[in-house]
Structures are given as C-alpha cells and as structure tokens.
Amino acid sequence: MDRPPVRLTDWLRGHPFAVDIALAAAVFFFTVLITAESYWAGTRQSFLVGVLLTAPLAWRRRAPVPAAAVVVAAGLLEVAFLPAFLAANVSALLMVYALAAYAPRWASRAGLAVGLFGAALAVLRYFSDYSDVFVMAANAGAIGVAVVAAWALGNLRRARLQQLTALEERAQLLELERDQEMRLAASTERARIARELHDVVAHSLSVVIAQADGGRYAGKADPEAATGALEAIAATGRQALTDMRSLLGVLREGGGEEYAPQPDVAAIPALVEDVRASGLDVDLIIEGEPRPLPAGPQLAAYRIVQESLTNVLKHAGPASRAWVRLQWRPDALELSVLDDGRGAAAVESDGQGQGVRGMQERASLHGGRLEAGPRHGGGFGVHAALPYGSRR
Description:
Heat Shock Protein 90; 64% helix
C-alpha cells in the first residue's frame, strides 16, 4: 500500500528547529552578506556583530530567553562600537516576537520593554544628527511601532499555541474517559453475566438435587415417580446447559479475548500510574500494614478509586492535582481521593455505575460508608471506609 504524501506544512510543523535554522540563515544572508559592502565597508567588527544578531534566531523556540540575551548583548556592542545602524537589527524584532510567543510571560514583557528601550537608544545613537526634531520623533515612532507590532503578533501566536494545546489535552482526556467507560461497561456486563450464571447453576442444581432425592426415596415403592423425577432432572439439566451455552457464547464473542482477574487493592498503584501517565499530577499515599480483605471489598476499593480519579479527569480542570490515600485502620480500610480542581464533580449517578451514587452503593454493599463533596478552599473529596469483615 502506498504511503500518503507528506505535505510541506506537516513537515514544517514536525521540524521546527530546521525551520528556525533556515530562518537564521536567510536573515544572515540578506542582512549581513549582501549589505556588508554597502553599509559596513567590510569591517570585521560589523560582520561579527551581524553574526551575533542573526545566529541566535536558530534557537528562538528551543531557548528563547538565552537567544534574546545574546541579541541584546550584540545590540549593546553595536551601539557602543559601530558607527552605522545595521540591517541585521531586524533580528531584534524577530526575537521580540519569539519571546512573546514561546517564552514565559515575564520574558515576554521584558522583551517588549527592552525592545522599546533599544528603539529609543538607536534613535539617539544613529539619528540624533538630524536637525529636525520631528524627523527624529518619526524614526523613533516607526521603530517603536515595529517593536509593538512584533510583540502583538507573538502574543497572537502564543494564544493559538495554547488553544491547540488545550484541544490536544481535551482529546486525550476524552479518549481516556471513553476507554475507562468501556472498561467499566465491560466490568458491569461481566458482573451481570456472573450473577446470571450463579442463578442458573444454583437454581438448576437445587432442582436436580431435590428431584434426585425424591426419586431415590420413591424408586422402590413407585417406579413411575422415579421415572418422572429422572425426566425432570434431564429437562432441568438440558435447560441449564442451554442457558449456560448462551451466556458463555456472549463471553466468547470478540475474538477469544482473555479476561484478567478482577482488580483488587494491590492493583491501585498501577491504576494511579496509568492515570499519572495520562497527564494528571496524582500522588499515592499508603499508611499502615495491609490486612486480609475479602475479594468483594477489594474490588469496591479499586472501583471507588478508579471512578474518583475519572471524575477528577472529567471535572477538576487543567493543571489540577490529586491525592489518593489508603489507610489500613484496625477495623477498616479507609481510602480518600482528593483534588484541588474546580470541585464540580458529578454528584448524581449517570445510570452506568459511575458517579457518587454508584460508589456509595458499592461501599454500602460491603457494610462500608462513603462521603463525597466539595472541599473547603476548593477541590473535591471522596472518603470511604470498608470494614475487613463485611456485614451479612
């Protein structure tokens, strides 16, 4: 199969450093090499300053602050030692743009201030011999407007990049949410099938045992009753076999997937690692020595943590943190899932076993309790306690 052609725009996005190197080379060629003879009279000092002004453009995205520092130093050398205003000073405008687009906010504002100061300094150094004050003011205004325009364009680029980053994060969160919802739906379906299998097997075996006992006692005195009991046993067995084949056929659909054992408390660290890998800053704290806990409460603990972290991903907002704490108390396992986000997690079940209501049902099923709600100072918190010996 032929590979789709690579578009030029895609290649440029995938190789930003190569693009910056090409930009630096182009600026060097047009502002240093071509104008060398006419503007600088070929002096080594002018050539060196031109190189210092243009070469840092290759790192305008990788290291904007150090690159801007080199350009500022080169500009100061120009003002101090060179008699003519260099065409390579266009690099200063490009660096103001880079600081506004790719550097931290403080560096962006500093770049604007230094650019405006450099504009005034250049006018005083190279255009102060004009007798007309209005001409000097016009030169200063033109350079200042160019600096502000470059800074404004850089801010627009920053906003665009932030928008793209937010869209990518949203897509990743939606994909993670979809995968987790699929896993929860599959777990719910397996639990339903397990309950149905239990009902089929328990009911059928009870009927078989009762008919076998009755047929054994009636066999000597009433052979017809024994025959009827055997017929009932056969019919019950056939019906149970049909039901089990139907349920197992559902499990076999999907290409013979292998299903892992139900998760327990020991799987919570791996769950936290998976969520951390998706981009959420989450910490795990374990206190106390682990104690024996039945499989049901262990599964409930895992699901409570899983659904709580899913709610954090869905509702806490960007740049939020979460904490998962497991406390092995003398009488119960206490777990907490806290976040410092917006505190807008869902408080009603969505009908699919998720949300606070679903977690409360899981906890109460095993004799535990669960509380959830906004935290003082911001964020959301889920606290649950699962006793080691569940109530019957």
